[in-house]
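--- STAGE predict ---
source: upstream dedup step, 1 unique chain passed
mode: sequence only
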Amino acid sequence: MAATRFIALFFFVVFGSPAVAGDPYPPQLDVSFVAAPAPIVQYGSTRLVYEMVITNFSKRTYVLDAIEARAGETQFKFAGDLLAAMTIHLGAAAPKESPAVRTIEAGRSLMIFFLLDLGKDKAPNAIAQSLHVLDEKGEAHDIALAPLPVSDESPIVVAPPLRGDWIAGDSVNNGADAAHRRAVLVENGHPWIAQRFAIDWVQIQTVDGARTTWKGPEDRNDSYFCYDQPIYSVAAGKVVDVADGLPENVPHSGKYAYPIDFNNAAGNHVVVEIAPRRYVLYAHMRPGTVRAKPGDQVGAGNIIGHVGNPGSSTEPHLHMHVDDQPSFLGGNGVPYEFTSLEASGPVEANVSAPNAISFGSIGVQKPFKNDYPANNALVTFK
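--- STAGE serialize ---
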């Protein structure tokens, strides 16, 4: 297990080799991964979430035609528009059409976001993958990658951070608007996705026939249903970082109350170490409500603050995630599951939008244990 954790900490490289022996012009593409995938149970299904980076070391242009992956007995193939929707260009404006999105110009890099749904199957020890690319002449090349190790560490199981009915905003998903999942940031020479499994928790009610997160003046924080709700520690642990006293934003104003940087994006917050290299971050607390200081020991269920709207936030909500560093942005987000919840399936919504959030239909809730909610699911914590 220790070796698996060590691998997961680094941006490690898996070099491709031609699938067909003797390819006279093997594509000069380097393939690497941000972190080793680790299994998570989401809405009853085992899923593997990971990110691939492809860098073109040549002066030629290649088009990524397809990627095949095999996880245990389950086969996946990503091509065309589906593959394009999983892909971004690093450091460049995003093309709009599928072939352009899948094109790797000389010296450029793509990042591809994977979410493999294994259903009821257990996660394998490794994922087998192959790339199919076209060169400038339209000739096809196959690249077989070394097996990608899968972490054998189970998700950490935590208690609810809130009570009552909540929307699990932008929980891990593979949509093009998955803001947490695609928040790649570099610190100390390493790319990190600390928010890979982050959730923005908001509350909704039906107002004038529409589901909304507030009632009253839109620009007042106390109009929002979740504002000032208590936040509970999800596990026993040691407080390692705290911020309080930062001012709140005016909801949906398009402006922040103070300049946002790498160190203050979480606003008023608490970070608790609940296991070795496992830190829970609770962000965007109301000023003056933080009930902890560095060095404090907290227990599961202790109130550590109240929901607010400071930092990188457009309206009141609780941002929570678990990663392997005591940092809001500079760490590797790791899977976690809740001990007990009732949850619907995924709900159509974009909770990362800078303006009012709209919600699609919400299905029937089902009870779960040791599970992580679907994207924008309606969740009840008791």
